[in-house]
Amino acid sequence: MKALVTGATGLVGSSIVRELLNGGVEVRALVRKTSDTSSIDGLDVEKVYGDVLDGESVRVASGGCDTLYHAAALYDFWVPNPESLYAVNIEGTKNVLGAALQSGVGKVVYTSSTASLGAHGKDSPATEEAQFNMWDAGEHYTRSKYLAEAEAMKFCQSGLPLVVVNPAMVIGVGDSRPTPSGKMILDVVNGKMPGYIEGGINLVDVEDVARGHVLAAQKGKTGERYILGNENMTISDYFKLIAEVAGVRPPGFKVPYPMAIVLGYIFQTLARVTQRRPIITAPMVRLASKYAYFDSSKAVKELGFTQTPIRTTVEKAIDWFRKNGYVKAA
Questions:
Q1: pLDDT tens for residues 85-102?
Q2: Domains plus CATH for the chain?
């Protein structure tokens, strides 16, 4: 068995690579020549240079592969040019899945996101049947993932054996970038988050997500989506958990929504001028204030998806960040 993994140097992709290798699968990783490959260096992986924006390079890379895991994506809530989010996440997905169809890959697992399902409140966690409802947030990453999944589903109609997985907020070891999810942990641990906006999120361990991908390839039904999540938590409770594990004080100031929106507009206006990353933007505020709670029972029942307690995941993540120099000295 041979599998191609796109996005293999990222948090989710590199974890998928390790999970596959642990299962005795031969792995080919699609990497750009400019990629930081430290997350997979030293592993028994065949590195093939290419780019999801270059469909031909993906077609060549997918040759001879039984399974393709499309985990490549631009995961960011602010970029100087928002069009890059749509290019990588939508056009890149079309290129990869088109290449898989041409190459006759036996199974494709597409890494979507719970972002493509929207946010439906805290009283009834959303399932795979939820409909996207986040257009009003004006946030480009979320929109791009919804649109990308819609494009991915079209390939099933053309005969591609595709399964979609929708990870929730992924945290855990190996977050070398770090991702926005990892930076949230670090900002609390390093005392760089004086306040917070209340909302709700679903959290999941990256290693569980990697196993979920492999299970989706083995047991997932073509054309189906599976939420890979775990615990639903308010932002305030999550920050308290991080602080407790790290032995620091949690953010103490709950920023009122109207104030946060005003600050978001101010910071994003400045960012347009300076081209420097803003502390927060109005779309980020709208997104953060939602309750995006999810129900992963379908993946548990149909795939055998397992879930690590989030406290354990936070402990592992903080320990990894400390060992790798991301936590400032006390």
A1: 999 999 999 999 999 999
A2: 2-174+203-230+293-308 (3.40.50.720)
